[in-house]
Amino acid sequence: MLTKIFAHRGASQLAPENTMPAFKLAYELGAEGIETDVHLTKDQVPVLIHDEHLKRTTNGNGYIKDYTFNELTQLDTGSWFSDEFASTRIISLDQFLQWSKEKPLYLNIELKNNKINYLHLEKIVYEMIDYYRLKDRTILSTFNKNSIKRMKQFTDIEIALLTSKGNKKLISLAKDLGANALHIKYRLLKSKLMKQAIQENMAVRVYTVNKRTKMMKCFLHQCHGIFTDIPDRGLKYRKFFSLNKDDLN
Question: According to the CATH classification, is domain 4-248 in 3.20.20.190?
Answer without folding.
Answer: yes
